[in-house]
Amino acid sequence: MRTSSGxxxxxxxxxxALALAITSCQQNTSKDKTVNEQQENVDIGVSAKDFxxxxxxxxxxxxxxxNGTITAAITNYGARVVSLLVPDSAGNLVDxxxxxxxxxxxxxxxxxxxxxxxxxxxxxxxKGQFSVDGKPYQLEINDGENTLHGGKTGYYTKxxxxxxxxxxSLELHLLSPDGDAGYPGALDIYVTYSITSDNGLDIAYRATxxxxxxxxxxxxxxxxxxxxxxxxxxxxxLMVKADHYTPVDKxxxxxxxxxxxxxxxxxxxxxxxxxxxxxxxxxxIKIGGGYDHNFVLTKKDGLEHIATVSxxxxxxxxxxxxxxxxxxxxxxxxxxNIQNAKGGKTYGLRSAFCLETQHFPDAPNQAKxxxxxxxxxxxxxxxxxxxxxxxx
Length: 392
What we know:
392 residues; mainly beta; Beta-galactosidase, Chain A, domain 5; 2 domains; 9-stranded antiparallel beta sheet; 5-stranded antiparallel beta sheet; 34% strand; globular
């Protein structure tokens, strides 16, 4: 688990009004438009008013950040990316993130974690059980017999506090109390979304605890680089720098093995179409109904480029950089008749993919996997970037 004695957060400006008419907190004497002025007329695919409410005593809103080229709309309900507009090869803006048309649908049970920050532990924990220093803990069960993405009341169901906003960034804060969904320790979390100068969506995570616990935070965006609502992602070209992956049992819990991708459908070391081997007569493919597996990234410590995916229809290319050791690739195998999506669309089977940067699933129960434990006095600090360009 990475630790840091200092903060990598930049000092930002006080929170602004939201969405399409955010006004700049900075003086601007230039005749050029500010980033927010450039974003005022951008159609983000949803209405900010449909995301305004009060849950308990907490206000929920929609915020827009961008750099004049790409624009992200984010709600503090679940710290979710609601839309992400990037230019295609013809210069047209394309929303590459799937999601619902309004907050009401994001709040429905079984909504699929669309665009959310998931935790306290992203991915699965076997039977929702683990021990820290010999003390057992039982989590909420929400995926068959297992815990998935933090449980029934994971961070995707929480209203996050918006602490800092600039034209290009949004910082959110959540205090997860001791015993939250069964996890030990009060976890103090900050997540910052930033639009970078090279057209990336950067997600930086920081957390501290008052009791030894486990932490594995990630973002659960569903992507379709042909545009949200496009029929399929099986034609997308994907490359992942991974020599090994973690096979799973019938409940999608890792067996503990680090298996070679050589001569298997899991070999994406050279770019190939997602659909090329997705229906192969491979036992792991059959278990997942396609890809729903963690890839063991071939990388050193630090931020590295570990995956690239592109759409042949739009020419949009997404590169993923991360400090994390793993990447969960989910090929939309359980998507079926997802209604009330943006623009009144309905999402179908394999109409999106997820590439979630992470530590390995069930790591608290797998001694050979990189540790996800966090102790008092240490700081969980990691970030990942989804960077966009077009295929030349």
